[in-house]
Amino acid sequence: MSVGDVATSNDLKHLLSLRDLDHDEWEKLLHHAQLLAGPRGREPLLAGRRFGQIFLNPSLRTRTAFEVACWDLGAHAVYLQPGTGLWELEYRKDVSMTGAAAEHVQEAIGVLGRMLDGIGMRSFAEMEDAAEDAEDPVLSAVAAASSVPVLNLESAMDHPHQGLADALTLRRHLGDARRPARKVKVVVRWAPHVKPLPMAVPHAAVLAFARDGHEVVLAHPSGCGLDGGVLSRAVELAGEAGGSIEVMHDKDAAMDGAKVVYAKSWGPRYLYGKQDAACAFLSDHLDWMVTADDMARTDDGAFMHCLPVRRGLVVEDAVLDSSRSLVLEQGSARLDVQKATLCRAMGVEP
Amino acid sequence: MSVGDVATSNDLKHLLSLRDLDHDEWEKLLHHAQLLAGPRGREPLLAGRRFGQIFLNPSLRTRTAFEVACWDLGAHAVYLQPGTGLWELEYRKDVSMTGAAAEHVQEAIGVLGRMLDGIGMRSFAEMEDAAEDAEDPVLSAVAAASSVPVLNLESAMDHPHQGLADALTLRRHLGDARRPARKVKVVVRWAPHVKPLPMAVPHAAVLAFARDGHEVVLAHPSGCGLDGGVLSRAVELAGEAGGSIEVMHDKDAAMDGAKVVYAKSWGPRYLYGKQDAACAFLSDHLDWMVTADDMARTDDGAFMHCLPVRRGLVVEDAVLDSSRSLVLEQGSARLDVQKATLCRAMGVEP
Amino acid sequence: MSVGDVATSNDLKHLLSLRDLDHDEWEKLLHHAQLLAGPRGREPLLAGRRFGQIFLNPSLRTRTAFEVACWDLGAHAVYLQPGTGLWELEYRKDVSMTGAAAEHVQEAIGVLGRMLDGIGMRSFAEMEDAAEDAEDPVLSAVAAASSVPVLNLESAMDHPHQGLADALTLRRHLGDARRPARKVKVVVRWAPHVKPLPMAVPHAAVLAFARDGHEVVLAHPSGCGLDGGVLSRAVELAGEAGGSIEVMHDKDAAMDGAKVVYAKSWGPRYLYGKQDAACAFLSDHLDWMVTADDMARTDDGAFMHCLPVRRGLVVEDAVLDSSRSLVLEQGSARLDVQKATLCRAMGVEP
After folding, report:
1. What is the 8-class DSSP label of residue B244?
2. B284-311 b/e with 16+ CB inside 10 Å = b?
3. pLDDT tens digits, residue range B326-341?
4. What is d(CA B256, CA B272) in angstroms, rounded to the nearest whole number?
5. Could A68 and C86 be called an inter-chain contact, meaning their C-beta atoms sit closer than 8 Å?
6. Does residue A217 carry a pLDDT above 60?
7. Claim to verify: residue C207 and residue C135 sit in the same structural domain
8. C58: closest CA of chain B, how far (Å)
9. Distance between C71 CA and the closest CA of chain A, angstroms
10. In whole angstroms, how far apart are CA A46 and each of A76, A90, A344, A349, B88?
11. Domain containing C90: what range?
C-alpha cells in the first residue's frame, strides 16, 4: 500500500505527497496561498477549528507557520512531540508492544481525531532501509488510522508544503504568482553536510518545479540518486507541463544558464545504515558547497534553499547574504501555503 | 493531612480525588459533561480565562483534551513541563534546597495563581514508598499552595478525569448518559506490562463504577491489591449506590457474565522500590493479557482501557480492533468531562 | 558593537537593556504597566498580533507571563525552545557551521520576523569569558537579524522585565505606583547557591532602583563585583534621579536601616570557566543566606527576590513565609510589565 492509495481510499482531504495532487488541486492550492498572503489570510475562515501537529523530528518554520496560520485564520494549533512530554508511538502492525513505544498510532490518532479537525505529522526517513522509507510507513499508518484529514509536515519521502512554497516563491520571483511566468532552468543541486540527510526536500523540489513546467537539472555526485518512483512521477509531471528533468554529475556544467540554483544536502542511498561511510562520502564532496564563483556561472541566477542551512558548508555566506538569495521569501511563503492547505483540509474555500 | 482535607479547607473548587465528591457533584459533573458534548460545549462559557497545566509525567489525551476544551470554551491553556524548559520543583516542607529542584511549589504555584484562573497538575506515584504515595504529596502541596482551583490530571492515587470519562462512556454504552441505565457486572482486570505502573487509574475506575452502583469485580493476581483506603471508600460508595465490590484472583471465573472488562496494569505494592522483582512479577503473569477467548467468556461484554495501551501485551489486537472496544469512546469522553470540570473550577454553570 | 548600538540602529522598539531607556520611556512603561494591571489589561489592544518567545534557558514566570499577557490582550504567543523540538542556533559570524547548530540566527530570525510581530529571546551568560558575556552576543545577533522588535527575556547582561517589575513592586509597596513615593535604602544582597549564576538580575535590580532614585547598597563578598560598565551606568542614572550606589562587603552593616533587602546569588567573575572553584567559593559563603536575624537589623524591611529561589540556602523559610516577603507581588508585577513592553514593541498606546 503506498501513501497515494491511502489518500484516495476515503474522502478525507489528506495532503500526503505532491505525487498525488491533480493539476487543478495544485493550481488551486497555489492560487489560494497567494490570496491568503493578503488580508483574506487574516480573516476567521477557520473559526473554532483545532489542528494538531505531531513532530517526531525538530521544526522551526513548519511548526511556527502552522501555529501562526491557525491563529491568523481563527483556529488553534496543538503542538505534540512524542518523546518529550509524550511517550513514543508504535506504527507497525501486529507487534507485541514490549519496546519503548507506549501507544499505537491506531489509538493515539484515533482519539486525536475525535478532538481535532485535522492532524499534521512530521516523520523523517530512518535511512536504514530505502525500500522501507519508500513506503512512508509512519505517515501511511497515521493517515490510515485517522478520521480527520492528515497533512504531511515532512515524511520519509516528501515535504509537500516546502514544494508548494518553493513553487510559489519562484512564481513570485518570475513576476506572476498566479502562474509560472516562463519556463526557466532550475538546478536542484546536491550539497555537502555534517551528516547524511533524508531526501524528502529534493523530492518535493523536483516534483514542484516539474509541475510548473521548468527545465529541471538535478545535479549530484554519482551515487546520490533520488528515489526512482519519485523521479518517474516527476518526469511524468514535467512532460504534462511542458518541462523536463535531466540528471547531471558535473556540478559546474549544471550551473550554465541557470536561473535558479536550489541547494540541498541528502545522503547517498547505497550507504543507508552505514553512517561512517556516509559521512566520509560527504567529506569527500565538500567542493559541492555553493560559492559566489558557482553563482557567477549562472544566468544571473537566484539562490534557493529550504532552510535550515549550514553557512560555510552548504553555501558560502556571500551567496546567502546577496540580493540573489530567496531563502527568506521561501520561509515567508510557507505561511501562505500552509494557510491554503489548512483551508483545503477543513473544507473551506478561502 | 489528606488530599480531602485540603479540598475542603477553603472554598476553592479543587478536583483532587473522586473520593471527595458528594453525590450531587458527581451527577452534576456527568450531566454537564453530556451537555457540553453538544453545541453548548463550543460556546465561550469561559471567555478570557487561563488554565495552566503542569505535567511532571507524559500525556497525550489529558493535555490535548484540556487544551482543546479551553479553546472550545473561549479560554486558553498554558502547558508547563518541569524538567523541559522549566526547572524541577520542590514540594517538601522545611528542606534546604541543594538538589535538582530550583523552585518550591510554594512560590511557583503562588505566582501562577496570580496569572491563571485554574491549575492542573499531573504527578505520578513514585512507587518507592506506598505510605508516602498514599498521601499524594505533590498534589497536596500544590493544592495547599494555590489561590486558584487545582485539578488532578493524574496523581499518585487518583485520576478523577479518567474515572468520570469512564463512567460517562459506560452510561452512554448502556443507553442513557444521564444515569446508569442498569446495574451490570464490570470487571476491572489487572494486566501485564513491561514495567510496574501506578494505581491511579484502577483506583479511579473502581471509585467511578462503584459510584454508579455497578457490580464491580476487581480481578488481579495475589499481591496486587489496591490501596486499602481507596477500596474502603469504594465499598462505602458502592453501598450507597446499591452496588458492590468483590476482589477475585481467578481471572477466568471473573469474566463469567461480565458486561464490561476494564483492563489496566499496575505494579504490586509489596515490590515498590524493587524494580527487578516487580518486572519479574509482571513477566510471570503474561497470561493475564486480555484475549478474544477471555472476552468469549463474558456476556457479550464490552472492552475498556484508559489508554495508552500496549497491544499484544495488555490486550490482543483482535479485542481492540473489534466492535466491542470502547477505548476511543473513552478518549472522546475525556474532552466532554474536562469541559465540565473546567466550568466547575471556574464557577461557571454550563 | 554594543547592544545599545543595535537598539538605536533602526526604528524598531527593541527592549534590550535597562541601560538604553531614556527617562520618559522608563516612566511610560511603568505607568502603562500599572494601567494594564486593571481592566484595560484585558482588552484586545493587540488583537491578532503574534509574539514569538525563544528560550535557550528554562523559564516559568517570563514564559507564562508573556503567554498570558498576549492572551489577555488578544494576541498569541508562540513558544520556541532550541534544543527541544528545534535544533540549536548559531549566532557567530563567518563560521563554517560544522557543529551542533543547524541554523544561523540570520535565517531563523529572518524568517520568524516575517511570521511574527515581535520576538522575545532568553539567552543566559556562558560564564566562561566575562568580556564576551559583556557583549551580550546572542541577543545582539538576534536584534541585528530581526525585522521586528526584540524583547530581552534575560540575556547575559540584563533582565529588563525583572527590573521593571521590581521597580513597580517597590513603588506599590511604598504606596504610589505612579512614582517612587520616597527615597529608601535598598540593599541588593549577594546570596549563596549550589552553582554560580549569571549577573543579569542583579544588574537589572541595581539599574532599576538607581533609576527610581533610591539609596542602593550593593552588598557582596569581595570578588563578586558586577560588570563595570553596568555599574557606571547605574551610578549615572542614580545621580540623575537623586539617588546613590554604594558597594559594601560587610553583610551585617549593610542591613542597618534597610527598607528593602533584595537577595540574589551570582558567581564571581574571576572564577568564570572554573566551575569547581566557583562552587567552593559559594560553599565558603553559606553564611550570606538571608535569615530572620538579618531582617531584624533592617528598618522593618521588605524582602524581595526575582524567583526561582532556593529555600534554606538563599533565604530562610521564615523570611519567605513572613508578611515582609514581596516575592509573589514581584511575580505578579511581571504580567503587568510585560503587557506594557508588548504594547510598546507593537506600537500600541494602552
Report:
1. E
2. ebeebbbeeebbebbeebbbbbbbbbbb
3. 999 999 999 999 999 9
4. 32
5. no
6. yes
7. no
8. 4
9. 12
10. 9, 31, 11, 10, 38
11. 3-158+334-345
Q: What is chain C's mean pLDDT, rounded?
A: 96
d(CA B112, CA B146): 8
Is C216 within a domain? yes
Spell out which residues of chain A touch residue B320, defining contact as CB-CB under 8 Å.
Answer: 106-107
Q: What is the ipTM of this complex?
A: 0.95
- Min Cα distance C151 → chain B (Å) is 19
Label residue B9 by pLDDT band (50, 70, 90): very low
Nearest to B67 among A78, A103, A104 (CB): A78
Residue with cell 524583547: C151
Residues A220 and A199 in one domain: yes
Q: What's the CATH number where A140 sits?
A: 3.40.50.1370
Q: Total domain count for chain B? A: 2
**CA–CA dist C339, C336 (Å, integer):** 5
Q: Are A328 and C107 in contact (CB under 8 A)?
A: yes
Chain A residues whose beta carbon lies within 8 Å of the beta carbon of residue C85? 55, 58-59, 63, 79, 81, 84
Set of cell numbers at residue B83: 524538567
Report whether A344 contacts A29 (CB < 8 A): yes
pLDDT given for residue C218 in this prediction:
98
> What is the average pLDDT value for chain B, to the nearest integer?
96
Cα–Cα dist A236/A253, whole Å: 25
The reply to whether A118 and A204 lie within a common domain is no
User: Are A307 and C90 an interchain contact pair (Cβ–Cβ within 8 Å)?
Assistant: no
Q: Are residues A172 and A271 both part of a single domain? A: yes
Chain C: closest CA distance from residue B128 (Å): 25
- Chain C positions touching B58 (Cβ under 8 A) are none
In terms of Cα–Cα distance, which of A8, A2, A21, A103 is closest to A54? A103
- Give the model's confidence band at B66: pLDDT under 50 very low, under 70 low, under 90 confident, else very high: very high
Does residue A6 register a pLDDT over 60? no
For a pLDDT cut of 70, what percent of chain C falls above it? 97
- What's residue A10's pLDDT? 54
Tell me: do C113 and C44 sit in the same domain. Answer: yes
User: What 3-state DSSP class applies to C236?
Assistant: helix
Domain check: are B172 and B314 in the same one?
A: yes
Q: In whole angstroms, what is the distance from residue C261 CA to residue C283 CA?
A: 22
Per-residue pLDDT of C114-134, as tens digits, reads 999 999 999 999 999 999 999
Instruction: Please state, in angstroms and rounded to a whole number, the distance separating the CA atoms of residues A37 and C265.
Output: 49
Neighbours of chain C (3+ CB pairs under 8 A): A, B
B146 in any annotated domain: yes
Residues A10 and A97 in one domain: yes
Please report whether residue B350 resides in a domain: no
Which of C71, C310, C331 comes nearest B102 by C-beta? C310
Q: Do both C124 and C191 map to the same domain?
A: no
Cβ neighbours of B72 in A, within 8 Å? 48, 50
Chain B environment of A104 (Cβ under 8 Å):
309, 311
Grid coordinates belonging to B43: 460556546
Q: In 10 A of CB A8, how many CB atoms?
A: 10
Residue B11 within a domain: yes
What are the cell numbers at B165? 470519562
Interface contact A95-B64, CB threshold 8 A:
no
pLDDT average, residue stretch C330-336? 98
Question: What b-and-e string marks burial along A96-113, b requiring 16 or more CB atoms within 10 Å of the CB?
Answer: ebeeebbbbbbbbbbbbb
- The secondary structure element, H or E, covering residue B53 is strand B50-55
| Segment C6-17 mean pLDDT | 73
Band (C2; pLDDT cuts 50, 70, 90): very low
Q: Where does B137-229 show beta strands of DSSP type E? A: 150-152, 185-190, 215-219
CA-based R_g, chain C, Å: 19
